[in-house]
Each structure stands twice: as C-alpha cells, then as structure tokens.
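It would be a great kindness if you could assist me with a short task in structural biology. The matter concerns a single protein, recorded as an amino acid sequence and a row of backbone structure tokens. Kindly check, if you would, that the fold set down in the tokens agrees with what the sequence suggests. Thank you for your consideration; the sequence and its tokens are set out here:
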Amino acid sequence: MDTLLRETVNAVVNSRFPEMSIEGRRQIENILIREEYPKGAIALNEGEVAHEIVFVGKGMLRQYYYKNGKDVTEHFSYEGCIVMCIESFLKQVPTKLIVETLEPVVLYMFPRDMLFKLAKENWEINMFYQKILEYSLIVSQIKADSWRFESARERYNLLLETHPEIIKRAPLAHIASYLLMTPETLSRVRSGVL
C-alpha cells in the first residue's frame, strides 16, 4: 500500500468531511491514479478538459491564466490540498487555466466518471463531493471579497495567516500576482513600508 496515498486521502478527507468512515476512505484510495511531475511541468494546459479532481500528495502547484500578456496566479495548492478547474470539470469544457508545478509533485487523480459512480452508490462519497464543491465556492468568495475590500497589507496578512506554506515556498512574483500586486508593492508590504 502506498503510504503517501493513504496520508493524502486522510488529509484531504479530514479537511472536508472528517466523519467519513474507513470504508469510504478506502473506496476513494482504490480508484485514485498516481502521477508524478517534475518542477516546471504543466499538469493541465489551457484548452484541455479537466477530467479529474486532483489531490496533492507532495509538492506545490499553481493555477494561472493569461490576461493582457501577463500570467495571473489564481490559486496555489500543496500537500493535502485539492486542485480543480471547476468550470471545466463540471461542464466538461476546455479550461482557461493552466496548472503548473512549482516543485516536483506527486498527485492523485480522482477520475470524474468514477467519482460520480461512487457518489451514486455511497452517500459518504456523495457528501464528500458536495463538501469539495462547497469549499471551492467559499474559497472563491473569500478571495473575491479580499480583492474587493482589503488593502494590500490585509491581503498579504490573510495569506500569511491562512497559508504560510505559500509564503515560504512560492516564488514572490507568483505571490504578488495572486495578491493583485506588483512585486515591488509586495516587497514594501513585506518590509512594513505599506
């Protein structure tokens, strides 16, 4: 048995639906597909269709898109997190996002067709899937509110408080992009000037 697989499933499930039974967790483990990518690889490219929800076992990724010739970081994921291009996954249409590895990664792919099959058969898997969708919507709302209502310093402090791993491990240019700042503004925020 892949120990990292079990640890990853437990981390992801515990963060979304901790009351899931051992049997439900094992059902998930049995259908996940392990993939490894080196640093700098594109795990999902713009124009492709997302057929899986991805659990991150090891490493860090970012989701980004291009706007006016610049890449804009949409989201970071690391150990125990989920990666999902939600519109592409739900509607089975090409994504506008790109998923890039910032470190060597081990990913566990949860195929859409198997997820839906299990969700029909097992209420726990169905509830887990619902919790994933709820979490994704809440994260999107928190991020949108932060962009609309918070200062640069407040956005940085929220990221530092909620996801210190991103601050420690992601390149500053990507963090600045994620926080809707220039790298220079991020440097001033970090040094306490702003």
